[in-house]
């Protein structure tokens, strides 16, 4: 992204990767290699969104970061919904096997957090760094495709603060307050923040209710201490709560759904017929949607009434991982997230610094959705005694995730040599429960809580950079990593570990993950670099095999599912150039990469028997080559005008892929040459910003800004049958400041683009379940429509 904005309002302290200060005019300092470096001198492809850009683009979520970053997609489709419950981050086309898996990890001040939703709880971000390519050498687990590091502002010893209020159309609002100052002079300072925002959904369902309502409340406290010139420490804590309504998503159906009288209640939009197979292996013709997804033929509809069936079910603790009082109370989602971390830096000498980081995360969410996704009140229910009279398929999902981490390192920085050595430990565990359906909820049907999954990663890492000449440097970096994965489940005779239950299965994987970099300044303001890096993503288990019936087990094995799934690996080759020109008015960077992805983990769905029971498992069933070019530039044309432009071409070529469900649907067995799903091949951002002083007013300024965000359409699956339309979104913002007061006006999605933001293969649910033996629908995420508003701020 543009590299001309100042990274902060005031210089911050130097220390661990959390703190940074502006470099030369027009530069940003980043911490991609565990030390402060100018973004133009860092031989890594990194995008930095500064505090000024975060504010002017109103970035408050991981989806906002993705929209403003080329080569970055977020997939929020999961289990018949598209919401903020689970958000899968996709960089450079590294689409994870499932939305709960990840190929990119998120950090706050270099400390790992358990999910990207933690971004909502960062109260005062100085910048957001998006690192592309394997970052295992420094950042460890789940940085297979990249890493996202949110860097906090460090409070100064002066009292300061602000109060912000925003009001917009469709009941959009935001209130925000910041306060910082001294506790004991500059030796002990603090910053506290409070943030609350909400909005009414953009889409109206057939019952008159809205889809996409959101509300978030977050608070944070950062305390920084510098009791001596050689000692720095800080503690950061944040808490957030998200409360959302029914998700802004719907289905594009390939089949007509009719009531008992033959009337169409949900219209199919099939435009092709695929030659696939049925459960017996016989050839059949499957109606589907091919090419570019059409616009909606059906107004979004849903069942949302929380009647006695729903209330009794949600009040029942059976099989739940959360207490019902802490869970969702109707259709929608509630999530709570707590994060705590601390860092200590000790300068043993001007060249040698020791750093200790420790963190803790606790996230839980509860989500209740209408899994059929349309108004089914005209369909009779065959669910049996105790069921409601009409067909419906409400479904509950809950998850608790906890982890802690610790890292210790020594950093050395001399005139010609810079190095770091350290060790880290990350121990995380989670437990989920699901349940629902068309039968007697809360009477014979309850939630089903699974066992605990645990992942423990220990690593020893190093990095060394040596300047062979004033213009030529070489870097050798690496991590020796041990991943130990566990699955716990209630099973007679299994050994019990305290607090976790019986151990069902575990695996240990050991890997060395190096990165080599050569960078050369072939001109005073231009750097060329080349690198090669290895990355690994931990393996997983298909534990459901151990409790499957003989028939289902045989079908799962035949589909390629394995109990133990080995880690997936990648080797990334990269060549880039960064620099300045036109008298430092122009900053630019461009990089090309090639990344062979091997032992790819893929999710496999087996639909068993006539009852259409779904069995989920995984296997190392893929091999993909990823390659592309990414570029960004910023030009300060004059003191009043700045242009920004960034773009990415992220290409993929599937070599090997197996998926029984897609073969059953399409008849395709050879996926060679196909492209990765859920990732835009082409993406770009552009902006023009005007600004300057207001004539005749002292201590005043004005600005106007127009942003353009572009993402090409994404495939729904590896068969490349259907894709979404390209999206062009334009946002405008203008404001004026005088003294401590400022006011801004904005319009987002100016052209009211209604194209889908995500897509996922899915099914049409009916009382006979006749359309669940193959994919018969596509779940699509709906965008936020045009929104206008005004924001006011007072700084003191």
Brief summary:
The protein is mainly beta and 796 residues long.
Question: What this model shows, in words?
Answer:
By secondary structure, this protein is mainly beta. The chain has one domain (29-795): TonB-dependent receptor, beta-barrel domain (Maltoporin, Chain A, Beta Barrel). The protein is built from 6 helices and 48 strands. The strands form 11 sheets. The protein has a 22-stranded antiparallel β-barrel. The chain is globular and about 75 Å long. It is a multi-pass membrane protein. This is TonB-dependent receptor. It is found in: Cell outer membrane.
Task: Give the key terms.
796 residues; mainly beta; Maltoporin, Chain A; 22-stranded antiparallel β-barrel; 5-stranded mixed beta sheet; 6 helices; 53% strand; globular; disordered N terminus; TonB-dep_rcpt-like; receptor; transmembrane beta strand
Secondary structure layout plus pairing:
Elements: E1 29-30, E2 37-38, E3 46-50, H1 51-56, H2 62-67, E4 72-75, E5 77-78, E6 81-82, E7 88-91, E8 104-108, E9 111-113, E10 125-132, H3 136-139, E11 146-152, E12 160-168, E13 172-182, E14 188-199, E15 203-204, E16 210-211, E17 214-228, E18 231-244, E19 249-253, E20 257-258, E21 264-266, E22 272-277, E23 283-288, E24 291-292, H4 308-315, E25 332-347, E26 352-370, E27 394-413, E28 417-436, E29 448-449, E30 453-467, E31 472-488, E32 496-497, E33 501-523, E34 526-537, E35 540-541, H5 550-558, E36 564-565, E37 568-581, E38 586-608, E39 613-636, E40 641-657, H6 660-666, E41 682-692, E42 700-711, E43 722-723, E44 727-738, E45 741-748, E46 758-762, E47 777-781, E48 787-795
Parallel strand pairs: 8-11, 24-43
Antiparallel strand pairs: 1-2, 3-10, 4-7, 5-6, 8-9, 10-11, 12-13, 12-48, 13-14, 14-17, 15-16, 17-18, 18-25, 19-47, 20-21, 22-23, 25-26, 26-27, 27-28, 28-29, 28-30, 30-31, 31-33, 32-33, 33-34, 34-37, 35-36, 37-38, 38-39, 39-40, 40-41, 41-42, 42-44, 44-45, 45-48, 46-47
């Amino acid at each position: 992204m543009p590299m001309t904005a100042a990274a902060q309002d005031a210089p911050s302290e130097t220390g661990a990767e959390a703190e940074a200060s502006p470099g030369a005019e027009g530069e940003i300092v980043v911490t991609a290699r565990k030390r402060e470096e100018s973004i133009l001198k860092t031989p890594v492809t990194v995008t930095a969104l500064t505090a000024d850009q975060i504010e002017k683009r109103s970035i408050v979520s991981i989806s906002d970061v993705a929209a403003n970053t080329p080569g970055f997609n977020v997939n929020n489709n999961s289990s018949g919904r598209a919401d903020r419950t689970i958000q899968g981050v996709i960089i450079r086309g590294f689409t994870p096997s499932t939305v709960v898996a990840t190929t990119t990890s998120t950090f706050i001040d270099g400390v790992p957090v358990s999910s990207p939703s933690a971004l909502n709880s960062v109260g005062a971000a100085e910048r957001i760094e998006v690192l592309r390519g394997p970052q295992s050498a420094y950042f460890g687990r789940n940085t297979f495709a990249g890493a996202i590091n949110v860097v906090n502002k460090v409070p100064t010893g002066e009292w300061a603060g602000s109060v912000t209020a925003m009001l917009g159309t469709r009941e959009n609002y935001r209130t925000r307050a910041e306060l910082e100052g001294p506790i004991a002079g500059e030796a002990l300072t603090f910053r506290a923040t409070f943030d609350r925002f909400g909005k009414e959904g953009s889409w109206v369902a057939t019952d008159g209710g809205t889809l996409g309502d959101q509300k978030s409340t977050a608070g944070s406290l950062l305390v920084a201490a510098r009791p001596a010139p050689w000692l720095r420490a800080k503690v950061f804590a944040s808490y957030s709560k998200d409360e959302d309504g029914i998700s802004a998503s719907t289905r594009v159906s390939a089949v007509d759904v009719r009531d008992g009288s033959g009337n169409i209640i949900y219209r199919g939009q099939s435009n092709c017929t695929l030659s696939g197979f049925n459960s017996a292996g016989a050839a059949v013709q499957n109606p589907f949607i091919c090419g570019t997804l059409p616009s909606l033929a059906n107004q979004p509809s849903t069942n949302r009434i929380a009647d006695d069936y729903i209330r009794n079910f949600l009040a029942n603790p059976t099989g739940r991982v959360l207490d019902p009082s802490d869970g969702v109370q109707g259709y929608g989602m509630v999530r709570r997230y707590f994060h705590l971390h601390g860092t200590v830096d000790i300068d043993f000498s001007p060249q040698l610094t020791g750093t200790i980081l420790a963190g803790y995360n606790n996230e839980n969410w509860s989500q209740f959705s209408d899994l059929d996704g349309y108004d089914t009140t005209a369909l009779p229910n065959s669910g049996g005694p105790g069921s409601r009279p009409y067909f419906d398929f409400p479904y509950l999902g809950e998850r608790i995730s906890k982890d802690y981490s610790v890292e210790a390192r020594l950093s050395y920085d001399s005139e010609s040599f810079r190095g770091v050595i350290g060790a880290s430990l990350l121990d995380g565990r989670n437990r989920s429960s699901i349940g629902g359906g068309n039968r007697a909820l809360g009477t014979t049907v309850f939630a089903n809580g699974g066992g605990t999954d645990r992942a423990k990663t220990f690593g020893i890492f190093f990095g060394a950079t040596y300047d062979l000449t004033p213009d030529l440097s070489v870097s050798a970096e690496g991590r020796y990593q041990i991943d130990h994965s566990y699955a716990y489940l209630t099973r007679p005779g299994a050994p019990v570990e305290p607090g976790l239950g019986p151990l069902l299965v575990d695996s240990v994987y050991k890997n060395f993950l190096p990165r080599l970099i050569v960078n050369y300044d072939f001109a005073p303001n231009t750097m060329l670099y080349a690198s090669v890096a290895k990355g690994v993503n931990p393996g997983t288990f298909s534990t459901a095999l151990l409790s499957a019936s003989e028939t289902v087990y045989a079908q799962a094995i035949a589909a390629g599912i394995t109990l133990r799934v080995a880690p997936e690996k990648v080797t990334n080759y990269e060549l880039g150039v960064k620099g300045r020109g036109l008298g430092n008015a122009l900053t630019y960077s461009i990089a090309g990469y090639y990344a062979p992805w091997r032992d790819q983990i893929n999710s496999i769905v087996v639909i068993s028997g006539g009852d259409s029971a779904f069995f989920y498992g995984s296997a190392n069933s893929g091999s993909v080559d990823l390659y592309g070019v990414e570029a960004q530039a910023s030009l300060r044309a004059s003191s009043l005008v700045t242009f920004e432009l960034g773009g990415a071409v992220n290409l993929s070529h599937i070599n090997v892929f197996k998926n029984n469900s897609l073969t059953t649907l399409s008849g395709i067995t050879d996926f060679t040459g196909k492209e990765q799903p859920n990732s835009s091949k082409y993406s770009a951002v552009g902006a023009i910003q005007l600004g300057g002083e207001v004539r005749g007013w002292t201590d005043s300024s004005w600005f106007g800004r127009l942003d353009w965000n572009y993402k090409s359409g994404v495939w729904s699956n590896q068969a490349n049958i259907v894709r979404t339309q390209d999206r062009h979104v334009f946002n405008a913002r203008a404001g004026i400041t005088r003294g401590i007061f400022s006011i801004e006006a904005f319009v987002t999605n100016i052209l009211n683009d209604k194209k889908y933001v995500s897509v996922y293969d899915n099914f049409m649910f009916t009382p006979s379940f006749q359309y669940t033996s193959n994919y018969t629908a596509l779940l699509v995420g709906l965008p936020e429509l045009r929104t206008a508003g005004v924001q006011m701020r007072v700084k003191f």
